[in-house]
Structure formats: structure tokens, C-alpha cells
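The instructor's notes for this session suggest beginning with a concrete chain rather than abstract definitions. Hand out the sequence below and ask the class to guess, before any prediction is shown, which regions might be ordered.
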Amino acid sequence: PLRPTVLWAQRQDSVYVTVDVKDAADVKVELEESSLRFSGRSGDDAAAVEYDFELELFKPISREKSKWSTKRCPEFFLRKQESCTWSRLQKTGKLPWVKVDWSRWADSDEEEEKGAFETKDMEMDFSSLTKEEAEGSDDRDSILADLDEEVEITTDEEEDTAEEAGKAAEVKAGG
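After discussion, reveal the predicted structure:
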């Protein structure tokens, strides 16, 4: 599996992490106080790319007060255990696949004008999830379950021919 690009931004009380995997599927997440583990795949089945990473976080977070979403890209709102500025997302060294999300970033003197991170669209929080549920939670599975069924695809020309055949059958049947 490849490492996805991970974008992050922070406020004194929280960290916002975006995993740059569009339309992620088979998402598995393990969030602990000191680490975040992610695996999933992107794109359609024909060109699916597997991704995964494990990050030891710079400082501990409060798992129960953290949230996540997989609407477009997987996004995480991680509540820091103590309000402070992190010098980086990960505990040690520089990781080439972890980058600052400048669109969400606010220096400590800008926090009031930029405000808190927008989290109202994050439907899943970790407080109510058991570890097993979090690891197996891909909210798309239930939504997309019916898409696993085979679907017959016809072109416009085929459709016109089928419609004409249907009309002819109706006429024959006295419809």
C-alpha cells in the first residue's frame, strides 16, 4: 500500500487532519490517544489504489471528543488533551507525506478571526464507537450495498430499439 498525502492544521485546542484519498472505500480507522492509523482505497475497483499509514501523534488527544467524516476525503477533528501549539503533527522527525493545510491553518494570534474548525458535517464521533465498530466502519457500505448488484447498461440506440419493440408487443397484445 502507498502512503497518502496527509494535510493538517491546528488551533490551540484541536488538530484537523485530511487524508488526501478521494472517494475512499474500505476505510478502517484506529484512533488512540497517541496515534492514528488509517487504511483504505481510492477510486473505482478497476483502478483502486490501496493506502495506509500509522502516525504517532505529537501529543495526546482526547479520543471521545474527536470526530471524523469520509464525505469526500477522510477528515479528522482531533481534540488536544491540553491546549498548546504543536510544532508538527507526528511525534518524531519530518515525514514527506505529511504537509501543512494552509487553507485551514491559523497562527495562534489569528485564531479568533479564523474561528474554530468546521465540524458540523462530521457524522461520526469516537465517543460512541467501540474499537471494532471504528475499524469496520465504512459508512458507504450500507449506502452503496445496492450498487453491488449487476446493472444492465444500454445505449440510447439500444433503448430506442427496446422501446419500439415494447410498443410493438403492446400493439400485438391489444394494449
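Then share the key points. The beta strands are 6-11, 14-19, 25-31, 35-42, 49-56, 61-69, 75-80, 98-100, 124-125. The radius of gyration is 23 Å.
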